[in-house]
Structure formats: C-alpha cells, structure tokens
Design brief:
The structure is a homodimer. Chain A is mostly helical. Chain A has a domain of about 150 residues: Tetracycline Repressor, domain 2, CATH 1.10.357.10. The first copy, chain A, has 12 helices and no strands. Chain A is flat, with a radius of gyration of 21 Å. Chains A and B meet through helix 5, helix 6, helix 7, helix 8 and helix 10 of A and helix 5, helix 6, helix 7, helix 8 and helix 10 of B. Chain B binds a DNA duplex through helix 2 and helix 3.
Amino acid sequence: MCQDGAVATRTQRSPRRTEALSRERIVEAAVELLDTTGESGLTFRVLTERLATGPGAIYHHVANKGELLTVATDEIVAAALAVEPLASSPQDRIRAVALGLFDAIDAHPWVATQLSDSGWQATTPRILESIGRQVGALGVPEDDWFITTTVLMQYILGAAAQNAANARHVGPDANRAELLGAMAAEWAELDPGDYPFTRAVVGQMRDHDDREQFLAGIDLVLAGITALHLTGRQAAVHREP
Amino acid sequence: MCQDGAVATRTQRSPRRTEALSRERIVEAAVELLDTTGESGLTFRVLTERLATGPGAIYHHVANKGELLTVATDEIVAAALAVEPLASSPQDRIRAVALGLFDAIDAHPWVATQLSDSGWQATTPRILESIGRQVGALGVPEDDWFITTTVLMQYILGAAAQNAANARHVGPDANRAELLGAMAAEWAELDPGDYPFTRAVVGQMRDHDDREQFLAGIDLVLAGITALHLTGRQAAVHREP
DNA sequence: ACCTGAACACCGTTCAAGT
DNA sequence: ACCTGAACACCGTTCAAGT
C-alpha cells in the first residue's frame, strides 16, 4: 500500500528440524500466517500443520486464539516502538513514533483490527508511554498530558486502521492507483444533490499519498496542541454559550 | 418491532410468525441481536430461529453475513447523521455531528469494528459528507478540504472505536467506575522505570469522562484547523530540515 | 511435562426439493 | 418467486491416551 515496509523481518528460518515447540515459535508462525494470508488465514488447522503437531500441543502453550492474537499484536507494536527516535525536537520525535506505528500497521494490517478492539488494555500503555514522553518534552502542562496524548494516539490508530482497511480490501498484490481510481469512480457516481462535498473532493482523494496525508494530520494535531496547551490562554476555538 | 397494532383480524398463537420475510425485517433482527448479544451473538442459527425460517430464506434476501453487517452499520450511521444540527457556528455543528456519531457507536459498539474495517468504502462517504460541509462552512480553503475532513473523521472513528472497545470488554451491565478502577490498578503496577509517563497519568485516566474527553479532542483538532488552514500563513508547527 | 489426534459443538453457506 | 431444512466443509476447543 504505502512504500517499502522495511520492518525488521526475521531472517533465520530453521528448515524441517523438529525444533521444540515453544510459545515463541507458535507466535512467530501465527504472525507469518497473518501477514501472508490475512486474518481469516490464521487457523489452528493450518497452524497445526505448519508446526507439525496437533492442536492440543498448541493449547499447551497458548490459552486460546484470542491470546495468540493479542501476543502477536503486542510483539509487532513493541518492535515498532523499539526504535528510539533521534530527532532533536519533540515534534519530530512524535512524527517519527507516529510514522513507525503507521508503517508497522501498514505492513501488518491485522494489527489495526486487534488494536481497535483492545481499548485501554494490552498494548495501549506501550503506545501511550512512547507518545506521552514526547508530549511531556513538548512542554505541555501535566494536567493536560492525558487528553493530549490520548488524542494523538486515537488519531494515529484511527488513521492507521483506515489505511490498513483499504490495503486489506485489495490484497497485498493489488495496485494502489487502481484502488483509488475505482473508489474515486464510485464517489463520482453519488447523487450530486446528496453528496456535493464528497464529489468536490474526489480528485483530492484520488491523488492523495497515504503517508503524506497521515503526516499532515499529525501536524494538524500538533498545531492544535500548540494552540490549546502551549500558550498562556485558551485561544482560537470558543464555543457558543 | 412488536406488532401490537392489528389484533382481531387474525388469531396468531405463535408469537411473531406470519409477517412476510423481508430485507428490512432481517436487518432489524440482526441489529437487535448485535445490540443485545454482541458481535458473536449474531448467528444464522439464532437469526433463523428468531425469524422462524430456514437459513435459505435469509440468503434469498441477503448475500451473506458480511452484507448483513454492512447494511446494519450503514443504517445506524445514517440514523445518527440524519439529525440536522441546529447550532449556528460551523464549529458547534461539527461538535454536534461528532457527538452524534460517538453516541451512536457507544450505543452500538459493533459498529466501530465494522467501520474500522471498511476503509473508504460503504458508509464512509456519508460521514465525510456530513463533516465536510461544515468544514467548508468554516472557511477552510477548498484545497485543504480533503485532509481537514479526513483528519476529523479519523479522529472521531478512532476515539469512538477505543471507547466502544472499552464498553465491549465489560458488557452493557457493568459499572464504568469499576472498569476504570481496574485498569488504573493495572497501570499502577507497571514497571516505574519503563512506564513513568503512563503511571503519571493514571489518575487522569481513572477520573476522565469519555464524552468530555472526546469533545476536548474535537476542540483540539478544530484548533489545529484554525491554526493551519484558517490563517494566511503556515504557522505554529515547523519541521526540521 | 509435553504431545497426539480423534471427537465435539458450532459456524456460514449451499441446494435439491417443495409451495 | 419465495421458502424449507438437511447436508457440507470448516472452525475453535477439549480430552483420554500416549511418551
């Protein structure tokens, strides 16, 4: 979908050897299956065959399919966040962390569904921590840490999920331009009376670049943080009484 | 739902029998099932029983389970967006639309998963259109319409999805304070060396109000829009070279 | 302790047959 | 055209039995 998803892949693949079954090997096989065949491709039957065992053996190391998915997701996210951003400004470090997550989810679209379904559980603290530190470094007052970081995280996951869904709908092989073209064609056929705005932005949607768009969104949120939490007063946006 | 209106014309012993099977009745039953028993509760077996037919009859009106979910989701979203916001400022109308979606997704948590998985397809244009009109009214230049509206939509769906996931994890009956308390307790047990930020915001997370938090996020994005797209210059946020 | 593999309950979907 | 319901292929999970 996006560019080269150069996310650290495991190199060593042990051939036929009857390496002892372990939690790690199971999760590794699950991730590989998810990446290559999608969410519906992860099956205890296939997993069993891949690992040359029976289902009972897998259940001896993992509680159930849900835990397997949770652990697999956590592993991907942890790897994506493990890269310490070197940029000098907190803003740029936030951009780096955000992009790292975006690319990881783009490379492993099934992670998006899993993260969306987990709420505040599981891997959420990892993400919160990584972004939150930069929010602190930004100079946001401590009382605003939680809202600020949460908004960033929710935008990142929302945008990444949407992007991943697009990628999932066409499969890893398909052409990006074709996909956008097909969608643009659909939008162009919407009733002009009901969808004037959508039709007006068809061109922008057809031509947009996912990563660029995502970064523009991050910049927008950062600008909002600056306006609302880094100046002395509650500027810019005001509500009706 | 309950057809209590027509009485004397026909003596019906069996509860709801008779009424002709239709796409509408099927979708209606599916929504009810999803709302009361969750995503895993929607089954062709149960649906079949509820509607007093065989599976074949349902497949005569609906292509498959996926279509059923898509249509059900579209119905909920359409209903949520049907309420025309009366607020006088575009900002307040955006808040109204956003809150309408948030509440709808909160009431029907399964909608979140469905929307996250749909990408730019299906009901996306509805949401884009509704928010986009207000973005236009805001005075955002046409070239920025797509990014601006997209960011708003992605934040809304991301936040609503996270909220829905939390709700889903405890069930409709459970106590909200208990849930947050339990999560706060979990966070408080994280390694202080690895999670200093997360531990620092435990209190804020325990005490936060979901809707208030969501609206604060909308305000933050609106402030970003104001800063980046409603002033003459590219202010506030600047990148490193 | 770790693994095997048949078996169980359940799922979405199909289809020949009825009206 | 619309519906019936048995049947099919497949799923996650269990468990008595083996080593």
